[in-house]
Amino acid sequence: MLDPQDATVRRFAAACRRRDGAALEAVLGDDAVATCDGGGLVPAPGSVRGAAAVARLVIGIVAARAGAELTVESVNGRAGLALRHASRAVAVIGAETAGARITTLWIVLNPAKLTAWHRG
């Protein structure tokens, strides 16, 4: 049996893959917050608040990387997401949940912080 965090992140990942904004919003808490780290090397909006705004942000990140693979992986010891294009990590997303909803996302886009996530 999956732990609740893992199950929630997997539902979130499935909605991301489909680019389904309504399904993403359903998994996000109403006051969800996403904080992006671009390290000044890639465009990043800083913090975004609210389920609809966070869903749009995440869809934008995934859609901007056509052909990228989104996988559920351990991020800081908890279920999170890794987005890779041609085996190179382009985003890693840590998640905090409350029950069956995601309350906080930490989105790392900074290439300097993603090298350990590259495959092959």
From TrEMBL:
Gene3D superfamilies: 3.10.450.50. One of its GO terms (molecular function) is sigma factor activity. The lineage of its organism: Bacteria, Bacillati, Actinomycetota, Actinomycetes, Pseudonocardiales. It comes from Amycolatopsis eburnea. This is Siderophore-interacting protein. PANTHER family: ECF RNA POLYMERASE SIGMA FACTOR SIGI-RELATED, SIGMA 19 FACTOR. InterPro entries: ECF_Sigma-70_Domain (IPR052704), NTF2-like_dom_sf (IPR032710).
